């Protein structure tokens, strides 16, 4: 049997926004090899612009955020763009002297998206970017804990993805289409706040390692016919669009942690 407990009353989903965009033009430049190198940074600039605009839209739909300089910001991405890794890989394979363009490193860190958006929108609270397959789940859980503990009144939770061919190759939700079309770029943002009012609430149910009987946070939280989903890329979009109670379960490291939207 798995012990389960809830992280208090959680937070309220006050506003949300999401966008998808076509990566075809960027992938076409990557296919040109050396001839397309000069245009490679355009992918990150495009993503950064769209990411910031999505966060701004979520804040607007939330009716603004009180105390922007204290508003916290947590973001998640599975692969980000793999932009720098791809360019380094291609350039170091070239014959002759090896070189790397210093401009590429302006876009190195996955946290650069959050930094640019926070500066542009005046969000001055603590910020963090989480990376990996369970990053979106953990980002929401982190935000709920910050609000529940009283350390933050408002937290913006966001995710982004804009895969290059290099990053998409091993990605389970990569191209995978018969036509070989690139995946869509995407960005999503939620504004979570403390207290009551309009908007669905989010709580976190945490459990220790289970023994395989399935009686963890997902089973207890999902009783009564509530839809139960497994966390993965696109979790924030799922939470942004959901209009009915929903349980999302993390399977990372054998845990049965769950987010409950209701």
Q: List low-confidence stretches.
A: 1-8, 209-215
**Distance, first to last CA:** 25 Å
**Element pattern in H and E:** EEHHEHHEHEHEEHEHEE
Biggest β-sheet description: 10 strands, mixed
Quick tags:
single chain; 10-stranded mixed β-sheet
Q: If you had to describe this structure to a student in words, what would you say it looks like?
A:
With 262 residues, this protein is α/β, with parallel strands linked by helices. Helix content is 30%, strand content 23%. Strands 1, 2, 3, 4, 5, 6, 7, 8, 9 and 10 form a ten-stranded mixed β-sheet that branches. Helix 8 links the parallel strand 8 and strand 9. Helix 2 crosses helix 4. The longest helix has 20 residues.
Mind sketching the topology for me?
Elements: E1 4-6, E2 11-21, H1 24-31, H2 42-61, E3 72-77, H3 83-93, H4 112-121, E4 127-131, H5 135-148, E5 154-161, H6 165-168, E6 185-193, E7 201-207, H7 217-221, E8 227-230, H8 235-241, E9 246-249, E10 258-261
Parallel strand pairs: 3-4, 3-5, 8-9
Antiparallel strand pairs: 1-7, 2-6, 2-7, 5-6, 7-10, 9-10
